[in-house]
Prior knowledge:
The model has no long low-confidence stretch (mean pLDDT about 80). The chain is built from eight helices and no strands. The chain has three domains: about 1-45, no CATH class; about 45-150, no CATH class; about 155-195, no CATH class. By secondary structure, the chain is mostly helical.
Amino acid sequence: MRPADAAAAVTRQVQVAPASPAPRRGSEYAELSRQVRQAGLLERRPGYYAWKFAVTIGLLAAGWAAFVVAGDSWWQLAVAVFLAVVFTQIGFLGHDAGHRQVFGTGRASYAAGVLLGNLGIGLSYGWWVDKHNRHHVHPNTQDADPDIADGALAFTAAQARASRGWPGWCSAARRTCSSRCSARRSACTSRASRR
């Protein structure tokens, strides 16, 4: 089923819902999950992945060919940007393999993940699967989701305040701006009330 057909199926299901629905079974998430499954949105799409693999491998080969042809020149910067986009696509394919969406068996998905991650972009597939599984257990939960752990980016105000460098600077600047804006708002409100 094509994505457009699947999205249309979900839309039709939502639109034709009865005016007085039968009692729901389970949570809202369970209902949404049923609708997604019934629309076929979780089915594997081998044709899509065959096309995606072929195009991505072709672009990777073209990128490395451009790297060789460009030699020692400033064109290497353009080649680096191009290869960064291709490597990102390889990472997305590895992500889908990690979710067992590419192949019907776990063994084939694992082999694809190792080839794409370890060999393709130099990212340990085993490390990534472990980290990504922990992310799915506690999505966006501070101190439990490794994807929002302290690092280069601050995801919460507390992380930003504790940071050095630009995340801490941005947090301090925002606090200063907020306090100035609050003071201005108070002054404007008091002036308006006097009139």
